[in-house]
Structures are given as structure tokens and as C-alpha cells.
Amino acid sequence: MIRRLIYLTNTRPDISFSVNHLSQFVSHPTSEHHQVAMRILRYLKRTPGTGIFLHSQSLIQLKAYNDSDWATCPETRKSITGFSVYLGESLISWKSKKQQTISRSSSEAEYRALAATTCEIQWIIYLLQDLHIQHVQPTILYCDNQAAIQIANNEVFHERTKSNDNII
Prior knowledge:
With 168 residues, this protein is of the alpha+beta class. The protein has five helices and four strands; from the N terminus they run H-H-H-E-E-E-H-E-H. The chain folds into two domains: 2-46, no CATH class; 62-161. A hairpin with a 2-residue loop joins strand 2 (80-87) and strand 3 (90-98).
């Protein structure tokens, strides 16, 4: 059932977080996990028209939102990176994943999320070029952490800001 729910997240991003969290318990599921899966299925049954919609008259403008949840995994203390990328008004890419390493600060976790989002944006731009779709406007990338923005804008002093949350 989880494999089928994961497949559905391709067109139903609204269930991505729940299915991702549920899929972490595939090796040792309990009756509580089964109840959660059934609740997701009931939600899907109640909302059949919800999903990804690609507008035909939308601008070819990329914009992305990213965030990080610092040290939220209680077992590993790893942060979770999340982003969503839009082409015009249509959601075309999204991700929510534990980071590979443990971040020393929320700024570091946010900077890693910013880097992951930037890589995804670059890949999408290459894809648009391969499809001969003109993308001339700069991509808008939204980030809610001022320290991560400062680190990304600073081309010189990255070592000095490695685990400093007080950058403004």
C-alpha cells in the first residue's frame, strides 16, 4: 500500500509529507501505521479533483520556496530539507528529505536547504533548455533565514560563519 501511495505523490503533492513519514516505518509497521494509511486513502477518496494543474497561459518564470527544519528527527538529530519549485503558477518539483549530515546550527541547515534548492533549479533550467523552452527571466528563490541568505551572498568568509546563528 505504501508503494502505491508513494506513486500517487507524483500527482498529489498534498499527501507527500504524510506518505514520506509513514514510509519510514515500512520495515516494522504497526496497527497505528495501518490506520494512518487508511486515513490517507479516505482523504484521497474525498478529494478526487485535487492534484497538479498546469496552466496553458502561464508565464515561463521559475520561482522556488525552500525551508529547513533544524534537528527535528529525534533519533538522528538530522535536519529536514524541503522545497517546492513552480513554473509560472504550476508546481513542477518538490522534495522533503532528511539531510545527509547533522547541522551544527539552524543557519547551516537552512544553507544546506538553499544549496539543494539551487541544484534543483539549475537542473530544471537545463531541462527547459533541452526542451527548447526559452527561460530568460531570473529565478526567484524565497528563503526565510537571514543568516543563510547572508552566507549565500558572502563569497569570501564562509569558514567564519560556519556555525554562527547571530549573523544579521
